Amino acid sequence: MTTMLLTNGIIVTVDDAMTVHWPGYVAAKNGVITEIGEGDPPAHSGDVIDLDGDILMPGMVNTHCHLAMALFRGLGDDEPDRLKRYIFPLEKRFVSPEMVYVGSLLAGLELAEGGVTTVADMYYFEAQAGRALETLGLRGVVGQTIVDFAAPDAPTTDDGFAQFERLAADFRDHPTITASIAPHAPYTTGLDILRRVDAASRSADLPVQIHVSEMDYEADWVRDHCGGSPVDLLDQSGLLRPGVIAAHCLWVDDRDITNLARGGVAVAHNAGANVKGGRGIAPVLDMVAAGVTVGLGSDGPMSGNTIDLFAQMSQVAKLQKLRARDRTVMPAIDVVRLATIGGAKALGLDDRIGSLEPGKRADIVRISRSAARLHPLHDPYAALVYAALPSDVSDVMVDGRFIVREGRITAIDRASLLAEADAYADRMRRAL
Asked: 325 and 378 share a domain?
């Protein structure tokens, strides 16, 4: 039995009314938020933490990442056709269970220190990614990648499906880790494989992660091989439905957006990686207006380089304003919503996380206001989106347990992990 009271803070709840208690308090017991309110808290017998005017917000949700690629960060940046010339060959040569575990620990450290408490990951040897998140105390959705060519953990597509079945068994009924199946993209799978993915995910009652309408050549491939658009291909395969998380959705038109909304497909928006790759700005305003559930993602550390959501939030706001040529669109309050409850809804976890409300899990982030850039504070949403940095994260809780305390990760030796990751990268460089 553990009870905790966090008091004297600016409580950004992200509930339906977007309530801010200023000053306010949050009480939690056994990992669940029990009470939240304005002003002085009621009498409390457990641990009491005085927030001293800091901001308290829900743990952020990164809806699309490739954690293990942290060990590839910085390789092939600013090079053309990087996916085929660099990423696929690097993966074929270096991806292993050890690489995925070390890389996922490194990426998970970055997430935790940046206030991200939940991540959706898709890669190879995903049981190792799940173990890394478990070690750090993070919440995650881990996706077994399915492709139509030999993969690092699956010589054939059939082996990839077998890996998914093992992943599902490994994390069945796990309190914080959910397995999923992750067909890489339409052009690396095709209609028949996607139909198998649909059947497998329905049978296991687990989510699907897939890149959709990310590449400019993707639409041509789908039209030539299957007919229609990549979103139409989801429909043909049975994947235009709830439980499917479509990453990117850059090249979608009004009809595609209408169909995504109709089908209940969620979109993981990766603003930084999209513009870094020169691919464009996704029509997020149109998606939200149509009723599509949108959460924020970072893409992998080789695509967007940083994977915290502070690095994304400001870009999301500014790029949508630029696309619309209107400074009033995508206000900071909406961006914070996308980074928290929007991501939770996209992953089907909004009954448990994404907002600070009684009955939800105590996934909570404390933002220190010690930095000059967070003074004065007229609007906490504007401060979070346009001024705050990962270095401002002081404390992070998942299920009411501190995974970051006073800026330091609690579960592992930080210096040892960084040294191990650097040593692994050195071995790769020598091999290259």
From this structure: no
Inter-residue contact 123 to 67 (CB < 8 Å): yes
Q: What is the mean pLDDT of each run of 10 residues along the chain (432 residues)?
A: 90 98 96 96 88 98 97 86 80 92 98 98 98 98 97 96 98 97 97 98 98 93 94 97 98 97 98 93 98 98 94 97 97 98 98 98 98 98 98 98 97 97 89 76
Q: What's the confidence (pLDDT) of residue 2?
A: 81
Q: Give the total number of structural domains in the chain.
A: 2
**CA dist list (Å): 258 to 51, 99, 186, 309, 352:** 44, 40, 20, 27, 28
Tell me the CB-side half-sphere exposure of residue 381, using CA atoms within 13 A: 18
On the CB side of 124, how many CA atoms lie within 13 Å of its CA?
22
Single-letter amino acid code for the residue at 150:
A
Please state, as a whole number, how many other Cβ atoms lie within 10 Å of the Cβ of residue 71. 25
Residues 241 and 373 in one domain: no
Q: Is 133 in the same domain as 100?
A: yes
Domain range for 393 is 3-58+354-409
Question: What would the two tokens of residue 105 be?
Answer: 């620990």
Q: Which residues face 179 on adjacent strands?
A: 142
Q: What's the pTM?
A: 0.97
- What is the C-alpha to C-alpha distance for residues 390 and 428, in angstroms, rounded to an integer? 28
Whether 185 is covered by a domain: the verdict is: yes
Do 11 and 148 belong to one domain? no
What pLDDT, on a 0 to 100 scale, did the predictor assign at position 74?
87
Q: What is the pLDDT of residue 391?
A: 97
Q: Report the distance separating Cα 232 and Cα 244, nearest Å.
A: 14
Q: Is residue 382 situated within a structural domain?
A: yes
Question: Is there a contact between 13 and 333 (Cβ–Cβ < 8 Å)?
Answer: no
Query: Does a structural domain hold residue 418?
Result: no
